[in-house]
Amino acid sequence: GENVEQHPSTLSVQEGDSAVIKCTYSDSASNYFPWYKQELGKGPQLIIDIRSNVGEKKDQRIAVTLNKTAKHFSLHITETQPEDSAVYFCAAMEGNDMRFGAGTRLTVKP
Amino acid sequence: DSGVTQTPKHLITATGQRVTLRCSPRSGDLSVYWYQQSLDQGLQFLIQYYNGEERAKGNILERFSAQQFPDLHSELNLSSLELGDSALYFCASSVERGTIYFGEGSWLTVV
Q1: Do A2 and A25 meet the contact criterion of CB atoms below 8 Å apart?
Q2: Exposure string for A49-87, b = 16+ CB within 10 A, e = fewer
């Protein structure tokens, strides 16, 4: 089955800096890669996703890149703000099987 | 608001007891998933249902069971509760092979 590894587990940045979270997956058949943001006491919310036929996708300050050959994908947040502080989860999906990374706790210091 | 509704939001119960968590998926979604998240832990997949049938099983204990009803709502039953079962339980839903949307979770505290 799919195995997703996520790094780093914690990340602290200064407001205005960029943050990058990386994930690797094991199943080359995986074709859908969503990212979720989870704020304290709330459910994970989808923030951006990418399918395997695309190398990069951007939505305002958030971008995701996918390298199918290397089987890794990354979340990039630019111009970070304190409200970006949360736990971020990557996931990889093959068919109906969705596997999540262990999460990254991002702290943006004002 | 994801459209996935979970009840109750908070629940405190004693060890050895049984509880039922309820989930209403987004309109049109046939798949329902259950996840467990302990303090500072990741999302542990428990079980998935599709249109009333069990589709995939994760790390679900034998003391736990779930079902999806004809109206597509789902229930997660947790019995013989232990202190270690205290966690946030999430329901999520999707169309087949689609994006998974999460509810706000049910906080379970076992005392």
Answers
A1: yes
A2: bbebeeeeeeeeebbbbbebeeebbbbbbeebeeebbbb
Residue among A98, A99, A105 with most chain B CBs within 10 A, to mutate: A98
The CA distance from A1 to B108, in Å, is 30
pLDDT band at A10; cut points 50, 70, 90 = very high
Please tell me the distance from the alpha carbon of residue B20 to that of residue B65, in angstroms, as a whole number. Answer: 10
Contact: B101, A102; criterion CB under 8 Å: no
Task: For A76-94, write each residue's pLDDT tens digit.
Answer: 999 999 999 999 999 998 8
Interface check for B95 against chain A (CB to CB < 8 A): the answer is: no
Best of A9, A96, A105 to disrupt the B interface (most B CBs within 10 Å) is A96
Is B76:B34 a contact under the CB 8 Å cutoff?
yes
Q: What is the Cα B25 distance to its own chain's centre?
A: 11
Neighbours of A23 (CB within 10 A): 26
- Give A95→chain B minimum CA distance, Å: 6
